[in-house]
Amino acid sequence: NLEGNNISVIFKTDFEDMATLHLLQLSYNQIHTIERGAFKDLVAVEKLKLNNNQIRYLPDTLFTNMMNLRK
Predict the structure, then answer these.
(1) Keywords in UniProt for this one (predicted)?
(2) What is the Cα 47 distance to its own chain's centre?
């Protein structure tokens, strides 16, 4: 759970080798940028929470490898 940690940028290396992660909670931060490829290793994530951030743009391939994403 990374909620409320004043994170502003998600770098493409932040979640490397986390293929078994099922839930990623990033709500209530200051995220304004998510780099292309940042979620490429998150193949098992079923739920991703990004609400209450400052995101203006999402790379078009950001969720490509997240085949189990439900919410």
Answers:
(1) Leucine-rich repeat, Repeat, Signal
(2) 10
Q: Which domain holds residue 3?
A: 1-71
CATH number for the domain spanning 23: value is 3.80.10.10
Per residue in 16-49, pLDDT tens?
999 999 999 999 999 999 999 999 999 999 999 9
pTM equals 0.87
Task: At 56, list the tokens.
Answer: 């203006």
Cβ–Cβ under 8 Å, residues 11 and 40: no
From 19, 14, 20, select the one nearest 36 (Cα to Cα). Answer: 14
